[in-house]
């Protein structure tokens, strides 16, 4: 099996970069990644463009925010009283919070005020158009 289908286990090299060419993540200099189509390890739009690709093939795809990590949502930016933090804070650091269901929710410290802290719960890549580059190493039928 050399063609990627929705029933494939795929080994590939990948690279994600921003509009300005800055590389966000890449494994081209390392071991390739392996995933089973539909297992949730890749975003659906990242998988969809792989259908029909073959071993050895390379591709480059532009992903809009809606296809990738979503649009930025201003309601995901919240002010939290500084008194609720028992640690030293720095802008840009990621802090783990618990949502109402006790699930872990990472937030980026966007601004530190005298009385409150602005926390951004958007995905760091939300609102960004990404370029997704791949090289297919192997394709097998998923078990």
UniProtKB/TrEMBL annotation:
<dbReference type="InterPro" id="IPR001179">
    <property type="entry name" value="PPIase_FKBP_dom"/>
</dbReference>
<dbReference type="GO" id="GO:0003755">
    <property type="term" value="F:peptidyl-prolyl cis-trans isomerase activity"/>
</dbReference>
<protein>
    <recommendedName>
        <fullName>Peptidyl-prolyl cis-trans isomerase</fullName>
        <ecNumber>5.2.1.8</ecNumber>
    </recommendedName>
</protein>
<comment type="similarity">
    <text>Belongs to the FKBP-type PPIase family.</text>
</comment>
<dbReference type="InterPro" id="IPR046357">
    <property type="entry name" value="PPIase_dom_sf"/>
</dbReference>
<feature type="domain" description="PPIase FKBP-type">
    <location>
        <begin position="7"/>
        <end position="81"/>
    </location>
</feature>
<keyword id="KW-0413">Isomerase</keyword>
<keyword id="KW-0697">Rotamase</keyword>
<dbReference type="Pfam" id="PF00254">
    <property type="entry name" value="FKBP_C"/>
</dbReference>
